[in-house]
Structure formats: structure tokens, C-alpha cells
């Protein structure tokens, strides 16, 4: 055995031994049926967020695709239609939005997923059969603070309200919306699965972005950028379609075309504990992030 081969084996053994502890795992087991999303289950909240007269089995599809971290698990296509009107209470009917979002069941808003240093993983892709309308702004993944006053980050696409979007067909990751800083952008290329990991330092108040496409391992695409991720809260994975032409309360006013059928594929949703710089860059290689500088 060559010395090189021997060293590689040692490195492989080291990487395999190093598992980052999972904070939550929202990858969907292969034996899950659509109806399982409608009743309390171990993966996603069965009540939120969706049109008040809809159940998740009506707006989800199990996908035959496979994403980077869906090794023995199943991605989903999440859809919105004209009935995707969320009503958190009887006098708060969000007619300005069309919404369908998944939330990991253990992520209560005050749990450990928003303290310490954690890395949030997810993959997403366009559904060619159910295109988005890029004249609108969509939030695709976001963290909403426990007091509902802000989003500490929001991955968006389309024409950003009040923004100056050069190309709406772009994935745009914003930091805390109070600051409006754009952390990372990449073209929302068709027929490609986009993989993200966001390393969220809830102590140092930074966000570092990792990204890849298809089966490629994640790579750091930013440094740890200052970003106010304080305030705990809940991660949302899905479509929050904002209206056009609103001059007031966008949750209730503005224009939403009717007859829509839009969807996005989501998979590989989990969060790991990145204490000690542990981060999974691919399913076979949960390696410690190489320390840069110092
Ligand atoms: C980490 O690697 C092990 C194999 O060494 C694998 O079983 C596990 O699923 C990986 N963790 C993640 C989050 O993919
Ligand atoms: C896209 O949205 C705009 C603004 O709401 C609307 O005018 C247009 O008809 C929509 N396009 C399609 C194809 O639905």
C-alpha cells in the first residue's frame, strides 16, 4: 500500500468518525405517505403554514428526485394556488399573500435550534411544471423571530418589493430585513438543484453561506458575515408570495392574479450543531470546516 493511499484511508476514517450532532432532521422517510403530513408527525408541523381550508396532502407531492443530503429520504414539491390564504386568526386573513411553508416539528420558536452555533441545510429547485411568476417577490426560506418583528435572514426570488432587482430570476439571500443587506446571490438556474447551508452563529451574530449544485459538495461562498440573527424564532421552508401594487399593509392589500399553480421542490432539510466548526459538506463527508487564517 502506498503511503498516499494509507493517508487517504486515515483521512476518510477521520471524516466518517466525525459526525456533527443533529439539532433537527426534517428529511422525509421513504415510508411516509402524503396523508402523514396532515396528522401530527415527527418531521413537519401539520398545522402551519398553509391556506386555512387546505391540508398539506393537497399541496404537497412526494418527488422522485434526489437532493444532495436526501440519501434514503424523499424531497417534496410544495405548491400554492388561489386557496393558499393563511389566516393565523379569524380577524387576520392574509389575502395579500399566497403561502405554503413547512416548519420542522421541534422548532417551537424558543428551542435550541436558534441558540449556539448551528448550520441549517436545505436544497431547492424550480418545478418546471409549476413556474413562479417573477413579477412577484417570493420568500423561499426564512427565519422569523419569536416576536414576529423581523426575519433574521430570508432567501428570496423574483422582483423584490421596494428593491431594485436587476434580474428577478435570481436566488437572493438577505440578512436581517431591518438592515436589508444582501449576503449572497446566484442565478435561479432551471433544472438544477441548489444546495445551501447557512452557518448561523447566534452568539457572535454572524451568517456564513455554503452553496453547491446537484451532487457537488458544499463550498463556502462567503466569510462569516455580520448579521443580527438574535431573537430566536422559527425557520420556514416554502413559498410566501407577496402581492404587487400594494401601498399599504401587504399582508392584506395588493394584487394577486388568480388561477395560479406554482411550486418549488424542497429537500435535505436538517440542522446540525456546528460547535467546534463541525459542518457536513456532503453526506459522506461530515468534516470539520478547515480553519482559514490563524
Ligand atoms: C454523516 O456521515 C455519516 C456517515 O459517516 C452519515 O451516516 C450521516 O448521515 C451523515 N450526516 C449527515 C447530516 O448527512
Ligand atoms: C404575473 O404577475 C403579474 C402581476 O401580478 C400579472 O399581471 C401577470 O398576469 C402574471 N403572469 C402570469 C403568467 O400569471
TrEMBL record:
Residues spanning the signal sequence: 1-17
Name the UniProt record assigns to this protein: Glycoside hydrolase 131 catalytic N-terminal domain-containing protein
InterPro entries, per database record: GH131_N
Domain Glycoside hydrolase 131 catalytic N-terminal: 23-275
Organism annotation: Stachybotrys elegans
Source domain of life: Eukaryota
Record-linked Pfam families: GH131_N
Keyword tags: Signal
Amino acid at each position: 500500500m502506498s503511503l498516499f493511499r494509507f493517508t487517504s484511508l486515515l483521512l476518510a476514517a477521520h471524516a466518517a468518525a466525525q459526525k456533527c450532532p443533529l439539532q433537527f432532521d426534517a428529511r422525509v422517510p421513504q415510508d411516509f405517505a402524503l396523508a402523514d403530513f396532515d396528522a401530527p408527525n415527527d418531521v413537519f408541523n401539520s398545522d402551519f403554514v398553509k391556506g386555512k381550508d387546505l391540508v398539506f396532502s393537497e399541496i404537497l407531492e412526494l418527488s422522485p428526485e434526489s437532493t444532495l443530503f436526501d440519501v434514503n429520504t424523499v424531497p417534496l414539491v410544495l405548491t400554492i394556488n388561489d386557496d393558499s390564504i393563511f389566516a393565523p386568526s379569524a380577524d387576520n386573513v392574509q389575502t395579500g399573500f399566497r403561502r405554503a411553508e413547512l416548519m420542522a416539528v421541534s422548532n417551537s420558536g424558543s428551542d435550541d435550534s436558534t441558540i449556539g452555533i448551528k448550520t441549517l441545510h436545505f436544497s431547492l429547485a424550480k418545478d418546471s411544471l409549476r413556474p413562479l411568476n417573477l413579477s412577484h417577490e417570493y420568500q423561499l426560506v426564512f427565519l422569523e423571530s419569536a416576536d414576529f418583528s423581523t426575519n433574521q435572514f430570508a432567501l428570496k426570488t423574483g422582483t423584490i418589493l421596494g428593491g431594485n432587482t436587476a434580474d428577478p430570476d435570481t436566488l437572493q439571500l438577505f440578512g436581517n430585513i431591518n438592515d436589508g443587506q444582501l449576503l449572497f446571490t446566484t442565478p435561479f438556474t432551471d433544472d438544477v438543484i441548489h444546495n445551501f447551508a447557512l452557518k448561523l452563529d447566534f452568539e457572535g451574530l454572524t451568517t456564513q453561506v455554503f452553496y453547491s449544485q446537484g451532487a457537488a459538495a458544499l463550498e463556502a461562498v462567503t466569510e462569516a458575515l455580520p448579521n443580527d440573527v438574535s431573537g430566536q424564532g422559527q425557520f420556514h421552508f416554502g413559498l410566501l408570495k407577496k402581492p404587487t401594487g400594494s401601498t399599504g399593509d401587504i399582508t392584506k392589500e395588493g394584487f394577486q392574479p388568480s388561477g395560479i399553480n406554482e411550486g418549488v421542490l424542497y429537500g435535505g432539510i436538517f440542522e446540525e450543531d456546528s460547535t467546534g466548526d463541525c459542518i457536513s459538506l456532503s453526506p459522506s463527508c461530515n468534516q470539520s470546516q478547515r480553519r482559514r487564517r490563524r
